[in-house]
Write a structure and sequence with these properties.
Blueprint: H1 3-15, H2 20-27, E1 29-30, H3 31-38, H4 42-54, E2 59-61, E3 67-69, H5 97-106, H6 136-147, E4 155-158, H7 165-178, E5 189-192, H8 200-208, E6 209-210, E7 222-223, H9 225-228, E8 233-237, H10 244-256, E9 258-259, E10 269-270, E11 274-279, H11 283-286, H12 289-292, E12 297-300, H13 309-327, E13 330-334, H14 335-343, H15 349-367, E14 374-377, H16 384-394, H17 397-406, E15 410-413, H18 435-448, H19 453-472, H20 478-486, H21 491-508, H22 515-532, H23 542-549, H24 552-569, H25 576-588, E16 599-605, H26 609-621, E17 627-631, H27 637-651, E18 657-661, H28 670-677, E19 681-684, H29 689-699, H30 706-714, H31 730-741, E20 745-751, H32 757-771, E21 777-783, H33 787-795, E22 799-805, E23 815-817, H34 818-834, H35 852-862, H36 868-886, H37 892-910, H38 919-923, H39 929-942, H40 951-975
Parallel strand pairs: 4-11, 4-12, 5-8, 8-11, 13-14, 16-17, 16-18, 18-19, 20-21, 20-22, 22-23
Antiparallel strand pairs: 1-3, 2-3, 6-7, 9-10, 13-15
């Protein structure tokens, strides 16, 4: 019997004798119930149910969750879209999100058969997301503030940037109009106090108005915003930027309803105004207490990530509905796109989400411009920084699990819904133009000129970049602006621009403003896309050639940039681009670099080690510019890094900074500091007072150069080695260390492949070693296949001091079982290494019993792409099946080893990065009992959730079980 027939018979059998009324109330069947009873994956059940609905064989009852039953009578049939919740509009009539998304991808979707009907007899608060949860109290406060006689209560809205303060104030205004408290013709008057914070006189004139002659340029009298808001509502945003005298005039107006215009002495003007203020700051410290006391209602808005998963998803749907209405197209997002967008909100709350959605939809609109009525957005359409949202979300497994349970494989948003979040003309996250109109008009023009779609996309992407550049140039936070740039330009191009900037500045002897990264990234992105599209390059006019010849140095640098780009991207770049790059450099040129010298920072462990060195040098050379950073032994590396960055900024005089450190993780900070600060930094370790003295002497020379000083100090007597971050130089570093103190130390991490669990162990131990400032121990992941050969190779250059992993390699060193490591044993083990005590390890008999909840904890902690809630039971039952079928009993330690290995194999399959093995090794195990049993377990537990394990992955599971079997048989024979 086919799967669809089984599902159909089950539904009919369980609903045919139930009345329509009972079915509509709760008696119909959910997808999860059917999947559980028929032992079929939920996604497959959902697909078949919706296929049966389309064939009119079953009825679908909307709600949460959706339910299915026998066909209802015509009178009892429920409309498919009866819910007033905005989230109900993402499912097309009779089609699940997953099936709908697949149809969109295949281009076989039919037009919807009936429109969505909305109930419009509600006020805005009844439609606000979170009205019965996170926003319930806030809404009740807002209603009370508006309804309180005779003219409401003054209100202060508090919330972090982007949390929706402006939207909430607009909602209060609309509510007051709905209730007849404010005339329908009245407009909400909004004023951002930050706009004129540095000019109090101008700020006050805007608020209260002024008379003729009140200040220079006041040629006539003018009413202020308070008079404009008479009979309505005035919204003062960022009210903490209002100067004290302004706050005093406002609270006088609150008390008496009267005010004076700028230049007047008597308060003879009256206005009836409802006052709503907003701030991101603590009102107790940022506002006058006399002002705060006159505001009886304070409303605190929650941050986006403090809202429930349901509310965050609903907010995302609502914001995408705005874009669907603007484009008049259906917008379909895959599940990972939804998760990435939710995870991309790191600093700006709903405002940041809105901005990210606008950019993703703009790119989706461009990529689907030929599709009349729909936009399909997949993970491939996302810029890298929004893709990173997946990792951000995965770092909190509980959040990821909660969100995953609420999502279907596809989310589909229809245009035309009036339940989209209202758009405020004062919203700082609104683009000041319709980006879709710009894209559409430009595409039409280019199409008329005969360009194909690929070339149109390349041209318009550049256009989007330029428009967004004008929008983002006013961002005050540099890191936020760079994040915005990454949304429209490939991160590799931004990294290239950062990489070449100090080189260019060094060659041309001048430095650029902050706009260098932006301008260079956009320029490179534009012409690389033009090259990739095959479009003819721009020609060099005689005027251009003549101009550039007056700047031979810029042209030479431009040619070197061209060569670097050719090498980086593996494509020929025409000579004409050298001239355009030269023009860009000329246009960005500002002033020559200062006559500063190379800065010096000394950082060392101990309460006064670094400051003592610098004090000696300062006395000898009368140089007080050296920066010192003392690092107590209990200070963690993150705190040290922040402190050193501050010292580097202070020491920089425009010629770069030399960072002299003593040991440990400090020696790895150089490139990271340069990336963050754009200050060239060179690091030398094993610092001594003599070295600080020599570095200071060389830096004091006229025209001293950071690279020259660095190169000379490397040869300075007493200098040890430079920290080597490149893995390709590990062997060279090992040889250097061996000359000093014999062979360096190593820990081996054992798993069946050497790739999965072993690498996760390595990452865990590497992190612990860094945190404990141990840099002379290296962790090697190895496979149980040819394990002794791997160990022998390591022993040639390293001394193995400990082992950990899925099995004891029996090499005469302390062994830490994987289960003990995962339960926190790594901390104790590494502390013993840090203290240089005799390392010993035995299995703790008191280890907590391995339960499903403990297993779920391990999976959520050590795997990024697995949903621990979904896979714990599957993998637990998988291992139970192996043990019961073979009639063996696994120890708890081996059980977790096996589960962790299979989880690693599943994750590799999900990321399309499976292990490989030699064909002859694979052929040799085809008839082995364990191997056949593994294949059966895969069929029973993994294929039903669409995971196909490769034979090579099955081979490594077999090797783990074979090794366990051999060890177990040996123990049993010894007992006998």
């Amino acid at each position: 019997m086919k799967r669809q027939d089984r599902i159909y018979e089950y539904v009919i059998e369980n609903t045919q004798n139930v009345s329509d009324t009972e079915l509509k109330e709760q008696a119909a069947l959910t997808t999860s119930l059917i999947a559980e009873n028929l032992n079929i994956a939920r996604s497959n059940v959902s697909k078949e149910l919706n296929e049966l609905v389309r064939k009119n064989k079953l009825s679908k009852i909307s709600g949460r969750p959706v339910r299915y039953c026998r066909p209802l009578t015509e009178e009892g049939q429920l409309p498919q879209q009866s819910s007033q919740d905005p989230s109900s509009y993402h499912i097309e009539d009779g089609i699940s999100g997953m099936d709908l998304g697949k149809k969109k991808l295949a281009g076989t979707l039919e037009e919807p058969t009936r429109p969505v009907t909305l109930n419009k007899n509600t006020n805005i608060f009844d439609r606000m997301i979170g009205k019965s949860r996170s926003m319930h109290n806030q809404i009740e406060q807002a209603k009370a503030a508006m309804l309180y006689p005779p003219r409401g209560l003054n209100t202060l809205i508090i919330g972090p940037t982007g949390s929706g303060k402006t939207y909430f104030a607009n909602a209060m205004f609309e509510f007051a109009q709905t209730k007849g408290l404010i005339d329908r013709q009245q407009q909400l008057v909004t004023f951002n106090c930050a706009d004129y914070a540095h000019n109090p006189e101008l700020l006050m004139s805007h608020l209260f108005g002024y008379i003729q002659g009140a200040f220079t340029g006041a040629n006539d009298e003018q009413d202020g915003l308070i008079q404009e808001a008479d009979g309505g509502m005035l919204f003062l945003d960022e009210v903490h930027r209002l100067p004290p005298e302004g706050q005093e005039m406002i609270f006088y107006f609150m008390d008496h309803g009267t005010y004076n215009r700028l230049g007047e002495t008597s308060k003879n003007h009256h206005a009836d105004v409802r006052l709503v203020c907003a701030t991101t700051e603590d009102p107790e410290s940022s506002l006058l207490q006399t002002f705060v006391r006159r505001i009886p209602i304070t409303i605190q808005l929650p941050a986006f990530n403090k809202r429930s998963p349901e509310e965050r998803i609903d907010l995302l749907r609502s914001l995408i509905t705005i874009e669907a209405n603007r484009t008049n197209k259906e917008i379909t997002l895959t599940e990972d796109v939804v998760q990435a967008l939710l995870g991309s909100v790191t600093y700006g709350n709903v405002g940041q989400l809105k901005s990210n959605i606008q950019l993703v939809c703009a790119k989706g609109f461009l990529n689907n411009i030929e599709n009349e009525g729909e936009i399909m957005i997949t993970a491939d359409d996302l810029p890298s920084n929004i893709k990173d949202g997946l990792l951000n979300l995965a770092s909190n497994r509980a959040e990821l699990g909660a969100i995953s349970k609420l999502l279907e494989p596809y989310m589909v948003i229809k245009p035309g819904s009036s339940y989209a979040t209202p758009v405020s003309r004062k919203d700082s996250y609104e683009l000041p133009y319709n980006l879709y109109e710009i894209i559409g008009d430009k595409a039409m023009m280019l199409r008329e000129e005969g360009l194909d779609q690929e070339n149109i996309n390349n041209f318009i992407t550049t256009d989007i970049n330029l428009h967004l550049k004008s929008f983002y140039k006013n961002e005050s936070d540099t890191r936020q602006a760079e994040s915005k740039l990454a949304e429209i330009v490939d991160k590799g191009i931004i990294d290239f621009a950062k990489q070449v900037q100090p080189k260019i500045e060094n060659q041309l002897d001048y430095h650029f403003k902050e706009n260098f990264i932006y301008a260079m990234s956009l320029h490179i992105s534009s012409f690389i896309k033009r090259i990739q599209s095959g479009k003819p390059m721009r020609l060099m006019g005689n005027d251009l050639v003549a101009m550039v010849k007056d700047y031979p140095e810029e042209l030479a640098v431009a040619k070197s940039i061209k060569e670097m780009l050719e090498q980086r991207y593996g494509m020929p770049i025409p000579e004409s681009e050298s001239y355009y790059l030269a023009v860009l450099l000329i246009s960005l040129r500002t002033v020559p670099t200062s006559d500063g010298q190379v800065g010096i920072v000394v950082a060392a462990h101990g309460s006064s080690t670094a400051s003592s060195m610098t004090q000696v040098v300062s006395q000898l050379l009368s140089d007080n510019s050296i920066q010192a950073f003392d690092m107590p032994l209990d200070m963690n590396p993150q705190t040290a890094y922040k402190g050193i960055v501050e010292r580097v900024r202070a020491a920089n005089q425009g010629e770069g900074v030399l960072l002299l450190v003593d040991m440990g993780s400090l020696s790895t900070f150089g490139s990271k500091i340069t990336e963050e600060t754009q200050i060239p930094v060179k690091v030398i370790d094993m610092v001594t007072t003599a070295m600080v003295l020599e570095a200071t002497r060389k830096a004091s020379f006229i025209d001293s150069d950071l690279n020259d000083i660095y190169a000379e100090l490397r040869e300075f007597h007493g200098y040890s080695r430079v920290a080597i971050a490149d893995e390709s130089n590990v062997e060279e570093r090992a040889e250097d260390l061996s000359k000093i103190s014999g062979k360096p130390k190593a820990i081996v991490a054992v798993c069946s492949t050497g790739e999965g669990t072993a690498k996760k162990i390595k990452d865990l131990l590497d992190q612990l070693l860094v945190q404990n400032l141990i840099e002379d121990i290296k962790v090697f992941p190895i496979s149980i296949v040819n394990m002794q050969d791997h160990i022998q190779q390591i022993n040639t250059k390293y001394t193995i001091v400990a082992a950990t992993g899925v099995m004891n390699p029996q090499i005469g060193v302390p062994f830490m079982p994987l289960q003990t490591l995962l339960q926190g044993g790594g901390e104790k083990f590494v502390r013993q290494l840090a203290e240089r005590s005799e390392v010993s390890w035995v299995l703790d008999e008191q280890d907590s019993k391995l339960t499903r909840s403990v297993c779920r904890q391990y999976l959520s902690q050590y795997f990024v792409f697995l949903n621990a809630d979904k896979f714990t039971d599957i993998l637990w039952n998988y291992v139970d099946y192996l043990a019961e079928t073979k009639k063996v009993e696994f120890s708890e330690s081996f059980r977790i080893n096996l589960i962790m290995h299979i989880a690693g194999a599943v994750e590799r399959m999900l990321t399309n990065n499976p292990m490989e093995t030699a064909p002859e090794e694979l052929a040799a195990v085809q008839d082995e009992v364990w191997f056949k049993l593994i294949q059966k377990a895969d069929d029973k537990y993994l294929r039903r959730i669409q995971i196909e394990m490769t034979p090579s992955e099955e081979f490594y599971v077999y090797k783990l079980l074979e090794t366990w079997q051999e060890k177990n048989d040996t123990i049993l024979s010894e007992v006998d």
